[in-house]
Structures are given as C-alpha cells and as structure tokens.
Design goal:
The chain has about 110 residues and is mainly alpha-helical. It folds into two domains: about 15-65; about 70-110. It contains three helices and no strands. The longest helix is centred in the middle third of the chain and has 50 residues, at about 15-65. The radius of gyration is 43 Å and the shape is elongated. The termini are far apart.
C-alpha cells in the first residue's frame, strides 16, 4: 500500500516540504496573533477612555442633584457650632480648674 502512495505521487506526512509548510503556517499564525493582540490593546484603550468619559458624565449628573443649603441655613448652622464649642470649652475649663484645685489641696497636705 505504501508503494501505491509513492507511485501516485502522494507525499508522506513527514516530508521536509510539509514540515517547512507547517513552520511557515505557525509563523503566519503568530503574526495573526500579534496583530490580534494589537487590536485588543486598541480596544482596551478605547474602553478605558469610554469608562473615563462615562465617569465624568455621571459625576456631572450627580453634582446637579445636590441640594445646596441657603445662606440663612449656613449661618444658622455656624451659630450652632460656635455655641456648642463655647459650651464644651466652658466645661473643659471648669474641669481643669477643679482638678487643679484638688491637686493643690493634695500638695499642701503632703508638705
């Protein structure tokens, strides 16, 4: 049977020409993969730029939804904050004076 293939001109699977053709095909497919990788990089870059664009668009939409307080409300809140700071300051000052007085009492007894 092998004689019939040789006589009919058919080449075996391991001839040097078929190996060269296979190597050439591998090289060509490698170039195709490299080209496809370049396309993938471009597509990824485009997706990234779209994501950034979408982020800023969404940011603008969200900022428009903010309800800003009126100047009257702001000054009212400032007054409340100043009052609370004053009350806390007076409390801390009172505790400081009380502990200082107690410390002096203990120091006079120790001497």
């Amino acid at each position: 049977m092998a004689d019939k293939k040789k006589k009919s001109g058919a080449k075996s699977a391991h001839t040097p020409n078929s190996e060269k053709a296979a190597k050439k095909a591998d090289k060509m497919s490698g170039k195709t993969v490299a080209t496809a990788k370049g396309v993938n990089k471009a597509a990824k870059a485009e997706k990234k730029s779209k994501k950034i664009s979408r982020f800023f668009h969404d940011l603008k939409v969200e900022i428009k939804k903010i309800v800003w307080p009126t100047p009257h409300t702001v000054w009212k809140n400032v007054g409340i904050v100043v009052a609370v700071i004053a009350v806390v300051g007076v409390c801390v000052f009172g505790l400081d004076e009380a502990f200082t007085h107690l410390l002096h009492q203990f120091m006079n007894v120790a001497v």
